[in-house]
Design brief:
Blueprint (H helix, E strand, L loop, with lengths): L1 E3 H11 L5 E3 L6 H6 L9 E3 L3 H15 L4 E4 L3 H4 L2 H9 L5 E6 L21 H5 L5 E4 L6 H13 L6 E6 H5 L1 E3 L18 H13 L3 E5 L1 H5 L3 H11 L2 E4 L14 E4 L6 H8 L3 E5 L23 E6 L13 E4 L2 H11 L2 H9 L2 H22 L9 H10 L5 E4 L3 H9 L8 E3 L9 H11 L5 E6 H5 L4 H7 L5 E6 L4 H11 L21 H8 L2 E5 L5 H10 L4 E6 L25 H9 L5
Parallel strand pairs: 2-3, 2-4, 4-5, 5-7, 6-7, 9-10, 9-12, 10-11, 12-13, 13-14, 15-16, 15-17, 17-18, 18-20, 19-20
Antiparallel strand pairs: 1-8
Helix pairs in contact: 1-7, 3-5, 3-18, 9-13, 11-13, 12-15, 16-23
Length: 600
């Protein structure tokens, strides 16, 4: 059939299962956007207020559903606004299809409007190369069908991630006789299975362990491995801890769940995982915040503990810790293979040897509950970060989806808000940009319209994507935004105070006059956008207000006043952050922690 370049892209996206495209129009992409109106290529287009939000929306869509979404922008500033979103997807292995316009092929290098050309002609794809699995640039209209199926293959196979396809303006309008290649004939079939010898070694280690812990990362969620992971933990009596992105891999009301590890993990997650003689990591790459900067005994102790490392990407095996068994394979297939190799007799013997360990697990969980409860159940006002989360958990459906923003809310949600199913806790665990959670929540709600979706953000985080309230209202996307207003970047202030002994530019204050705290009246701003909104300052109003927001069936915002001085999560792990030489208070403690790091 004869199609323009824009029609080829639109038709391929439609045939490859893309249900939504988000973005902002511009002269560099007009011809492609027009193709979404053609018969057979109709895909609903979500117009956002900022191009970065388009990528974050696609990110949230995939994390909630396991299906990719597309985003699209013009050239120049519209395109460069996507970099933070693409980097977030890249670090967390989120497949996202991004298509942008580009200078016409006969104009590139001449300095056309919005072109980057001083070091290389049309240099924008050189930027996206660093934050995508691959960046493609169309040179002819008839090669676009090939580029499209190659881009989808790259995006979805192996370790998934975002891709970028640039289509120059003239190629969007030129036509050729082409065939859209069926994707099912251009993709690998099945998953990567583990080496049987490696599985045997892993089974032997797990059965001989006295204190086994399974550490679930984001890869366990992506591989849909939660059922096998839980079954294995139950069969051999292993505790299960999680990273940020692994939260939800096991139901957090399960007796073997010990919560998250890391700098802001749970005390029981860190204590039990650090005491493990065998850790089996499933889809985890051991970032510094998850591993407490590799300080021995803070979150992980390898050595003397032994590591079974399961990951789809060989790059991660042995990167930060030496492995006893490294398995490059699909997480679910590997866990199922391990399960199949353990007999009921072996499992019974292993369980009988772990009575003391499992008793330690329950004691550590009880200690964590005693630590957490006073903040979660507090009735003081302004609120702790934890109090609104406790209220939300009481009124939210068990399968509701919570989106955690960056900063204090991210750590507080990880510690305080239990989730019971995979893909119901969504956060940008690695890149952690502010401004991510609101558009990600809109993407999650588009993907899962029958589920409750709540984004929990601080006011500083919220301000960076505040205009997307308009996107929610215009498109009638009934997500709920829970804004914890502590009038500043309080996680940043807390770090400055700890490591510098003072703070700068992290509070929102009037800088002339009396220096009182400054805040936008966020709940009133939301009303002006057309949202239903509430402001809560009294503890007894929390549950009823949050329930009203969830039940209203429309985009809604709840602003809660949060204390600046009791705002953050518990710091149960360690973070390698050096203090200036002139701040002597932290020097000795930092040197001690640095000496205990194991990654070198």
């Amino acid at each position: 059939m004869r199609l323009t370049g824009g029609q080829i892209v639109a038709k391929a996206l439609k045939e490859y299962g893309i249900e939504y495209v988000a973005g902002v129009p511009g002269h560099g992409i007009w011809s492609l956007f027009d193709a979404f109106l053609a018969e057979g290529s109709e895909i609903p287009f979500i117009q956002v207020m900022h191009e970065q939000s388009a990528v974050h929306m696609a990110d949230g869509y995939f994390r909630a559903s396991g299906k990719p979404m597309a985003c699209s922008t013009s050239i120049g500033p519209g395109a460069t606004n996507t970099i933070i979103g693409l980097a977030t997807c890249y670090t967390d292995s989120i497949p996202t299809f991004y298509v942008s316009g580009g200078p016409a092929t006969h104009m590139k290098g001449h300095g056309v409007m919005q072109e980057l050309e001083r070091q290389q002609e049309n240099a924008f794809p050189r930027i996206t190369e660093q934050v995508t699995k691959r960046a493609y640039k169309a040179g002819r209209v008839d090669e676009l069908p090939f580029i499209m199926h190659r881009a989808f293959n790259t995006m979805l196979s192996g370790r998934p991630g975002p891709v970028h396809v640039e289509v120059p303006m003239d190629i969007q309008t030129e036509a050729a006789d082409v065939v859209i290649h069926p994707l099912q004939h251009r993709m690998a079939v099945g998953v990567a299975y583990p080496d049987p010898i490696a599985v045997e070694k892993a089974v032997a280690l797990l059965l001989s362990a006295q204190r086994p812990v399974i550490l679930a990362g984001g890869g366990a969620i992506s591989a849909n491995a939660s059922q096998a992971l839980t079954a294995l933990a139950e069969k051999i009596g292993a505790a299960v801890s999680t990273t940020w992105n692994g939260k939800g891999a096991i139901s957090e009301d399960h007796m073997l769940s010990i919560g998250a590890i890391g700098q802001t993990g749970t005390s029981c997650g860190n204590k039990i995982t650090a005491s493990a003689d065998v850790v089996m990591s499933v889809g985890c790459r051991f970032t510094d915040w998850s591993a407490s900067s590799y300080r021995k005994g803070a979150s992980i102790s390898i050595p003397p503990g032994k590591l079974i490392h399961i990951d789809l990407d060989h790059h991660e095996i042995g990167k930060n810790y030496a492995t006893e068994v490294g398995i490059v394979a699909d997480a679910r297939a590997t866990l199922e293979a391990i399960l199949a190799m353990i007999s009921d007799q072996q499992a019974g013997k292993a369980l009988n040897s772990r009575e003391r360990f499992l008793s330690d697990v329950q004691c550590a969980k009880a200690e964590w509950e005693q630590m957490l409860a006073p903040r979660r159940d507090s009735h003081e006002a302004p609120f702790t970060s934890q109090r609104p989360l406790g209220a939300l958990r009481k009124v939210m459906d068990r399968d509701g989806i919570i989106i955690a923003g960056s900063g204090n809310t991210q750590g507080a949600v990880k510690q305080t808000f239990p989730v019971y199913e995979p893909r119901t806790h969504i956060t940008s665990g690695s890149f952690s940009p502010m401004g991510w959670a609101i558009p990600a929540a809109l993407g999650a709600k588009l993907a899962m319209p029958d589920r409750q979706v709540v984004a929990v953000v601080g006011d500083g985080d919220f301000m960076m994507s505040l205009p997307e309230m308009g996107t929610a209202v215009m498109n009638d996307i009934p997500a709920v935004f829970l804004v914890q207003n502590n009038r500043g970047y309080m996680s940043i202030r807390g770090g400055q105070r700890k490591f510098m002994g003072r703070h700068v530019a992290s509070e929102f204050n009037y800088h002339k006059g009396n220096g009182e705290p400054y805040t936008a009246n966020i709940s009133e701003v939301a009303k002006n956008f057309g949202m239903q909104s509430w402001k809560v300052e009294a503890s007894e109003q929390l549950e009823s207000t949050l329930k009203a927001a969830l039940d209203c069936g429309a985009p809604a915002l709840v602003e809660v006043t949060t204390s600046r001085d009791a705002a953050g999560p518990f710091v149960t792990g360690w973070w390698d952050f050096p203090s200036p030489e002139y701040y002597e208070k932290e020097q000795a403690a930092y040197a001690e922690g640095r000496e205990l790091e194991q990654h070198m």
